[in-house]
Amino acid sequence: MNRRDPRAERAAMIVAVTPRLRLDRTHRGGARTVQAAVTETGPAPIRLTDPAFLIAAVVEAPGGALTRHDRQVIGAARLLAGNAGGVLLIAPGAVEAAGAAGADRFMALGVTGYDPACLARRVARAITDHAPRHVLFPETADGGDLARRVAALCGCDLFAGAESLTTHQAVRPTGAGRQEIRAAPPWLISLAPDRIAPYRGRPHEVESLPPPEIEPVSGATMAAEPLAVDAATIPLDQAPLVIAAGNGVTDFAGFLDLARALGATPGASRVVCDAGALPRAMQVGASGTVLNAECYIALGISGAPQHLQGIGTVEHIVAINTDLHAAIIARAGLAIIADAQAVMAALRRML
Amino acid sequence: MNIVVLLSAGRDPHSGQPRPVGVELQAIALARSLPGAIVTGLHAGMTDAAVCDAFGHGLSDITILTLDPGSDPLPALIAELRHIGPALILAGRRGQGGTDSGLLPYRIAHACSWPIVADATAITCDGGTCHVIQSLPRGARRRITVSLPAMVTIHEAAPPALPFAYRGRKAGRLHEHAGMAGPPPDPAGEIRPYRPRPKLIGEIAPAGTGVVLSSPTPDDAAAAVLAYIERFRTLS
After folding, report:
1. Contact B218 A318 (CB under 8 A)
2. pLDDT of A292-341, one tens digit each?
């Protein structure tokens, strides 16, 4: 009498192993069906050969990477373009992953360094040449400046800081924030941050367009240079990198030294401020400052709900704590179960 | 050095009462701090209590170019600025009273072919050039050098405005004359009371998806922290 071999039966049912295990249970115990391994690739990109109209999105893309706000602007352009229209992405230089963000056409203007007057002339020429139905800008410091320069060059009004945008209506605040203007989307629109979701659909195939030929004009801007800013003087709610001390820290002079060496703005938890070890102005959390930082380093902080409210929008969090079950460990991108005081000393030695 | 500060008819966001715009008052304080500065205010439109309140914050002369409500102030302002010939023109980053788009300084600068620098927090002038410290997001700063005359818009991070002085408010000299009104701009659309709309929530990785290092040596932990920060710095 033959005994069953379940392992061999299961092995005979295997159709494919990659990218996931697939079993053919209909041929129980039968011969293994030979099939070509299905190589799963991403969805095919959408290709627009002849768009009915264009929507231009003028982004900043510092260092070639699209920012969160840039993606939202492209998302809004995609929204206005629908299926028939194409999105023309205009950036000062090359941009990575423009197709995944929703762009069909891409134009690099070839402007390096800070020269907003030159950039504005090139954008104005590009949108005059290609005649997009709408032109969208991010309402950031430099993006808003560029949008207004382009509007002045084109002799056109700017719908500044739109908070809601659909194909038939745009809304922006006015009258000292007491009123809002509702109108059909005009030609030039700048988009307030966090109002329109970025594009999440199938990626688009990007076709590069040549930048407009424009004769160089000596601008009145003679020089522009970034200034080194002492991180300790940046207001806590604007700081990009914050390091905060909690109950697990005892050497506060060393903590402030470490903050200086890291180029981070120092913060503190409520316990530390209550004890008077650090000033109340440094308190992070619901009753202190709500951060807008990109990276947050929590030293010896357990993460009370009120503290987590203060770091609600921070993307990158490093937590150093002795308690594995502290709330901040679950929230952190990098959690280290160790004594904060010892890690602080090691960090100061390494910097 | 002649400095003109552009004033707008500000409104209190809560009560709607006339109130000068904060950044324009900061511009007055910044202009007065420059050596040898002769500072005057300029407004085009109706005579407004908000504009006259700027007297109390350190301005002694204001010119108002009277225009019909709703007309474009650009031609009147350009004609007056060409007449005055200032070295420096300051404005708030967003004026009020019109459509609050912050576009007017750019239109003036473009019409007069002046350079424009946005979001200034500090200004120094020497000879024919002007050094402006520009405020950027996340507390960053940039120094920009431009030739004079130049248009500079002032950011909220500039030094605070001078406190209100009732004597100054009473002693200020108001010069009113009719301005050259431009054609009224196209109707902007329907005006309604402001309705706050929800913002998108940031994309945060779900809890419990991070890397956990259990009891590493202090040096390993420090190296991991530094590597993580380096990665964040290259990402942003």
Report:
1. no
2. 888 999 999 999 999 999 998 888 899 999 999 999 999 999 999 999 99
Round to whole Å and give the CA distance between B27 and B91: 7
- Give φ, ψ of A129 to 5 degrees: -70, -45
Minimum CA–CA partner of B157 in chain A: A235
Q: Which residues contact B47 (CB under 8 A, 6 or more apart)?
A: B64, B66, B174, B176
CB contact under 8 A, B212 and A335: yes
Share of chain A above pLDDT 70, in %: 93
Angle, CA B33 vertex, CA B19 and CA B20 arms, to 5°: 5
CA-to-CA dists, residue B144 to A27, A223, A247, B92, angstroms: 76, 6, 44, 18
Reported ipTM: 0.92
Q: What is the 3-state secondary structure (H, E, C) of A266-316?
A: EEECHHHHHCCCCCHHHEECCCCECCCCCEEEEECCCCCHHHHHHCCCCCE
pLDDT over 90 for what percent of chain A?
A: 66
Alpha helices (runs of H) in chain B, residue ranges in sequence order: 22-32, 49-52, 74-84, 104-112, 166-171, 218-235
* Better pLDDT: A14 or B129: B129
CA atoms within 13 A on the CB side of A247: 10
Could you give the CA distance from residue A164 to residue B146 in angstroms, rounded to a whole number?
36
Interval A110-119: pLDDT, tens: 888 888 999 9
User: Across the interface, do B210 and A295 touch by the CB < 8 Å criterion?
Assistant: no
Q: What is the DSSP letter of A167?
A: S
Q: Would an 8 Å CB–CB cutoff place B47 in contact with chain A?
A: no
Q: Which residue has the tokens 């709330």?
A: A327
- Of A135, A73, A341, the C-alpha closest to B222 is A341
Is the pLDDT at B235 greater than 60? The verdict is no
Q: A22-23 and A14-16: which strand pairing?
A: antiparallel
Task: Identify the CA nearest to B81 among candidates B2, B9, B1.
Answer: B2
| C-beta atoms of B99 and A174 within 8 A | yes
Total count of residues recorded for chain A: 351
Query: Where is average pLDDT lowest: A62-76, B77-91, B190-204?
Result: B190-204
The closest CB to that of A295, out of B109, B133, B232, belongs to B232
Determine how many CB atoms are found less than 10 A away from the CB of residue A214: 14
Closest approach of A248 to chain B, Cα-based (Å):
15
Q: Give A204's DSSP letter.
A: B
